[in-house]
Amino acid sequence: MTELSEVESGSADRPTVLVTLTGSDRPGLTSAVLSTLATRGLEVIDAEQVVLRGRLILGVLLSAPRDHKKLKEELKALADIIDVDISVKKGVGDNEPRRKGRSQVTVIGRPLSAAGLAAVAGRIADTGANIDRISRMARYPVTAMEFAVSGADPEVLRTVLALEGVRQGLDIAVQDGGLYRRAKRLIVMDVDSTLVQGEVIEMLAHHAGRLAEVAAVTEQAMRGELDFADSLRNRVEALEGLPASALDEVYAAIELAPGARTLVRTLKRLGYQFAIVSGGFSQITDKLAAELGIDYAKANELEIVDGVLTGRVVGEIVDRPGKATALRQFAQRSGTPLSQTVAIGDGANDLDMLAAAGLGVAFNAKPVVRAAADTHLSVPYLDTILYLLGITREEVEAADAETPA
Q: Cα–Cα distance between 223 and 346 in angstroms, integer?
């Protein structure tokens, strides 16, 4: 037995005391309690503090003093002076370690009702799991809560909570807990109806006077009812004769998804790399990548001769398998293991890419994609991805205030 394990074993039946303070929050309360404890030479084993609407809850777990009664009297006198409630409870040992099967459960609602949150907690309990901690990730424009859960297989939890999320109208993501959740270093996004609103090929078709027929084919392809490569060729044929200047007009009219700039800006600050991969066109995606500071981009290339679209694409088509291949290539180029990648998309041609990534997120996606992805988001804000990565809205705002975009 090692020296460390002997220490841990000896601490299991060691007398301890839990000091809990509740009261109206104001500066100096925590300092006052700890200063009183400091006079006893006690060892701090654990501590946790939370403030909810001005109400402070502080818990400190300490090695037990020789004179428990006297400490209790001192803390009672302090409580009277600073006008709070303080309890002192004797016990043995440290906190119990979290059970195996650790998960991070992110719950997103607009709004998030008490009934919805109760239902989620109930289903977690049904699996035999325990909620170890709850913290708020965002309060607007959505409410996002994160649960640290232990004691259940993440896959079982994901299945149970996906069904409850549908019943409650909530987005619920379940990820394996632990260190690697914080190490997803490459984000790969679809473009049309994900990074940007709408479909670029339909905007081009509008300029060509062929919108209705192209939009109908796009919808079928995104639902997985048509082969993407064949559908793309058919739609591009409808653009034959369109002046190449229409590409500049379409780019100028593109609207990014709400929160797109925030997502990219925030994660770039943290050292993440970004890639976009699209069944659309490089004449658009290359400009988007340059504008947003995106590291890698891959898309189909429209053939242009004498300033006019020929109705054909150049080279190999970026289709469903092609998107997954691109993700793997981006991961290799960036030195990122696939387990540390996040893929985001909405259509059937994104399915292979979502499956290949460490975390696949269906963003306002077609039913076939929602059913297959690791998790899904049905709110229109692309920066909600940040909450899945453990980044809070307050942290984003603080970073923006410190270094304005």
A: 10
CB 146 within 8 Å of CB 387: yes
The residue type found at 149 is V
The burial class, CB within 10 Å (0-12 / 13-18 / 19+), for 221 is buried
pTM of the predicted structure, to 2 decimals: 0.85
Residue 223: C-alpha distances to residues 278, 347, 351, 373, 403 (Å): 16, 7, 11, 14, 41
Question: Span 378-403, mean pLDDT?
Answer: 93
Which tokens go with 247? 């590409």
Of 386, 344, 352, 364, nearest in space to 171 by CA: 364
Q: Which token pair is 341?
A: 């990648």
Q: What is the pLDDT of residues 308-323, one digit of tens each?
A: 999 999 999 999 999 9
Angle, helix 154-168 to helix 114-126, in steps of 10 degrees: 150
Residue 227 annotated among the catalytic residues of the structure: no
Q: Of these residues, 171, 190, 346, 350, which one is catalytic?
A: 190
Residue 59 in this model has a pLDDT that exceeds 80? yes
Q: CB–CB of 248/268 below 8 Å? A: no
Largest CA distance in the chain: 92
Share of the chain above pLDDT 90, in %: 75
The reply to whether 192 belongs to the active site is: yes
Q: Name the DSSP class of 123.
A: H
Which of 83, 126, 192, 248 is catalytic? The answer is: 192
**8 pLDDT above the threshold of 50:** no
Q: What is the DSSP letter of 101?
A: S
- Place 1 in a pLDDT band, splitting at 50, 70 and 90: very low
